[in-house]
Specification:
The complex is a heterodimer of chains A (593) and B (303). Chain A is an alpha/beta fold and 593 residues long. Helix content of chain A is 36%, strand content 20%. In chain B, strands 2-1-3-4-6-5-8-7 form an eight-stranded mixed sheet, with helices on both faces. In chain B, 49% of the residues are buried. Chain B has a single domain, classed as Rossmann fold. Chain B contains ten helices and eight strands. The chains are: A alpha/beta (593), B alpha/beta (303). Chains A and B meet through strand 7, helix 7, strand 8, helix 8 and helix 9 of A and strand 2, helix 2, helix 4 and helix 10 of B.
Amino acid sequence: MASGKYDFALAIGGEAGQGVATPGDVLARIYVRRGLNLNTYNAYQSIIRGGHIFLTVRVSDQEIYTHGDKLDILLCLNQDTMNRHLGLMGPGSKVIYNGDSISPGDAADGVELCPLPVSQLTNNNRNKLLQNTLAVGAIMALQGLDFQVLEESLTLRFERRGQAVVDENVGVARAGYDYAKANFQSFADAPPVGAKPLAVWSGNEALAMGGAAAGVKFYAAYPMSPATGILHWMAQNARNLGIMVRQVEDEIAVSNMVIGAAHVGCRAMCATSGGGFALMSEAVGAASMMEIPVVYINVQRAGPSTGVPTKTEQGDLWQMLGASQGDFERFIVAPYHALDAYNSLPQLFNLTDKYQCPGLLISDLLISEGRYSFDPETLDMHPTIDRGELITEGSSPNGYKRYENTESGISPRALPGLEGYLHIAATDEHDEDSTLISDEFTNPHIRRMMVEKRARKFSHALEQIDPPKLEGPEDAEATLIGWGSTYGVIKEAIQKLAERGVKVNHLPIKWIVPFHGDAVVEVFSSSKRTIIVENNYSGQFARYLRSETGLAADGHIRKYDGEPFVPHHIVEGVLEQLAGETHLYVPYQEVVT
Amino acid sequence: MATTLDVAEDKPENQLTARDFKGLVDPDWCAGCGDFGVLNGLQRACAELGLKPHEILAVSGIGCSSNLPGYFNAFGMHTLHGRSLAYATGAKLANHELTVIVTGGDGDGYGIGGNHFTHTARRNIDLTYIVMNNQIYGLTTGQISPTSSLGMKTKSTPFGSVETPINPITSAIMNGATFVARGFSGDVRHLTELMKQAIQHKGFALVDIFSPCVTFNLDNGHSFFKERVTKLEDEGHDTSDWQSACEKAIAWGDTIYTGLFYRNDEKPDLGQREQVLEKEGPLAHRPLGLSKEQVEGIISRMI
């Protein structure tokens, strides 16, 4: 809690099936209703029962972009959590656990151990999940919050299951609350009350909502972590919003089905992770050849192959750049965070409609599965929708050419069903009137014309997107360059470096294709030292930057252990590089041992 | 154009003929290819049903027979190898007022697209699937297909195929298709009738058609089928009896049955089960964006 700002983090550890999510959710909702900013990260395994789950919940009255560097409370639901994570706890923090069954380890000085006599406080109730409610009560007490807030929250949560369940939970929570008040020391500062209640969403929910706001009427998916949350939101809201949501046989069906829906006029979208996107790839080229606008989302996880299904990585950049055979244009956007992901989709849809091409969005587990507060009042739920040169009605002109060789390269697109506009959309090369040239005869001049027509569409595409902007002081000792989800952690690391008197600025990259190379060259030309931060081993963005601009950065901070960066990783990497100790810093992940 | 408005619907000059469904280019199939008969049958079926070209979307994959949409006057999608059913499903759900006809070959539909064939049948979506089954890969110059007979010698099986072929008819029935028929390209009149019924059927309709490859499959040529095909209609077959249908479908000797094997008009098609399609017309024509009430509903669940 530096400089009078409220900044508090708690972690809950246990095994799958122990109900780690529920206390996290109850507390998260209490905090956001209070108007506090929230950022959560869940380190979990691809397992339904057992294993180890570690949920971090951070709240603050300031804007926060990561789950942070330190913990104030550790709630251990099992011995394993105590053994693994006690070492993370520093002076002034507290560790809550079941005193009947968990033995504490050697805590650092200033760490308060808070064992709860669970059997006594729950009257030997056999429902093991009640120990979670008990712990939530204790946490509320230690934070100096009113019990009434928790009582309301539990009532809301359990009322569907009847009054007896509500009473049981409220009673147990009360016991935990009273016991903690009487036996442990509360934190000095209670959470403040923010300006207004906030809402909470995951990055996947933000992506789904962004699609819905952009006018998506067709969504298809095959379940794959960590993208499945988008399917769940879409399925839940399908009927209310009039969206056709289909779970189908495989990602190949998904990727082609959305093009079919888009061809007849729907805005259509799908999402998957890298492995699923590999199966989808052939269709990306089909959308390009048939000039049909469609959006694909890749929520990256640690690869290659099945990899680590529940861990994060930025390892699919070149997969997105190179998806599908042939030489063609696509849009690729890598949003910074959940709100940015929401806002990116309407823009991406407008671009794909304007240029009649595929649009790719890169998210990752960190953005998509994290949960964040947001202010619904500032959310643009009615973004501009521009469908480009789309013919949806009108008289039947003679000789409509679907792929007319226009000056802009953009050929007005008529929807199937419209009289007088008959045409074929073909994945073979075709002439302006959509007849195939690959089989009928070989005509190099038509082939060249059509290649140039499709490519010409994009000659002004770069003007449609904002160039990257340098954030922070101009006279910095170093410039950190990141793309996509590293935005928040770099931002917080720079604040921490500033507190230490080290001036560093930030060039975040969101649009991968098209790429504002000149703007980046300009920043590099005036930077004292450039460091690229990315969540992969080989430096995929560094390689891309070099291919687009010829620029090589002075140094690199990379992480590829499956866990995301936290601010101090980057702070340490920058300090070591400024001291001339290394050009490549790979932080040690200490949170999960 | 104005004069056509004065012509009553049932007058012959307003009725389209098979010629009106002739595409921009002529087929490039080998002389004698069975696919000519299939194209002819489809053009006749559409004309006789009174369909207009702009009401139809013909979707194909890749292969000799998948070139059909280019020779057929309607909206068309000539898509990726094996993926025609996926495209057609997306298109049909996005605009269920279109008549969506899927065409392709046995390799495209039962081989590389086999997964989609299984699941599209299961969904019983209202599509007509016309498969020109020649038991060979023609466009790649003669390799075995999923329907090639055991022992068949091709460039990829010089010592004879050791794999059992798939039976499209029994597969479709077992997977949940509600209209399953088999035709022969050498009997266009019969084929036309089967296609008309298939297009009119509400649900997933398969018409598997013996469409001989005269260049690469000399084992199963025109005369092979002409000598063997027997119409189920002449045998008093009960099309509601799926077990009898399967028994007749596996017959592969002196008698090979064609006609309608199985039909189920009771099972609702996917569109009828989807509440989203109940009112307001095709999804593709609905306004984009969210209403105030929809926004409030979404946000209230997130606070």
